[in-house]
Design brief:
Strand order of the largest sheet: 1-2-3-6-5-4
Number of domains: 4
Low-confidence stretches: none
Number of helices: 6
Radius of gyration: 22 Å
Shape: globular
Oligomer: single chain
Mean pLDDT: 89
CATH class of the largest domain: Mainly Beta
Amino acid sequence: MYSPLSQNFIRRVAESGRRKTVVDIYYDGVMVASNLPVSDGNIRVELDGQIRRSGSVTIADPRLVPTLNTTLSPLGTEVRVRQGVVYPNGAEELVPLGIFRLEVTDWQETAAIPTAQLYDRSKGLSTTGIRGFVSRSGWMASAVIVEFLNWYYPYLNATYASVFEEGVTDYRIPGGHTFGQTSYWDAISELAKNMGGRLYFDVNGSPKVSPVVELTSVVGTVLDLAAGEGGVLVDAGHSYSREGIYNGVTVIGATTPEGGIVEASLYNSDPSSPLRYGGPFGKAVNVIEDTTLTTEAQCYQRARAELARHTGLGYSLDFTAIPNPALDAGDFVRFVYADGRVEVHQIDSLSIPLGPGQFTGSSKGLILGA
């Protein structure tokens, strides 16, 4: 969840009141327009999507159309989107929803209202392939991630301290390994997974590697989404499914000098879990191969993170709520229902309206009871 927020923000977003959405436009790193009003659109956020943030904005200013070659050209333009509340005294509190690469600009001749299709900064890295084969033998995985980020976005000045959050584990790339035949984004995303993390660009357009946190009953939550009078939860659809669910992970790494194979396996062994390995759910093992992993501990780290991704996936919600632009994918929240039931969930995806429309999302969760 975005921070810092004033004490009034959470209360105000739960009430009917004036909302505001604006964009700032940058070309070649220089701001060329600011505080442009947005009349419609939405921002989509996906926790484990290849691209974390994407969306569209309709800018209610037909005067922009004649200047598309500079202001809304997709050839080097970035857009910062902000949304929030306007208080009765006229003060504003807006939170960032992301910094995006402008991919496509559309408009109708009669209406002359431009709509921009947006993707976060990972789009550039995901559409750029590694030329040939690049060797980084002996490098730490974190150093490779930082190097590739700075190669594409030198103005971000990424460093270990700015990118990596506490809880991920670095490791050394073995000799003889090369990177090639893939995009820069796919290459460094796999390295981040091996470190037990997720790689993404945050709402400020900064690259981050955050640890994969297992959903448990004791995890800290950032917000209650409550039904009933004074609540923000409009509706929720519940679903149980076994599709795409694993209760075991085996990670196979590099071949040892003696001809053996480095590997590690991890299973859901929680006796209270309906997904436990060998229980009524059965056995479903995801096998991952990555030759950059040279020790059992490294394989175990990747297996732990992958298994944590699947905790709670058997039970999910599709929900509608009063819009709160400060919420983010990955946030842990409590759903409080009208009959007193409480569930802890992790937000998997969000669709944030920038104009008229519903604030919707999906989540995976644990049932805690009343």
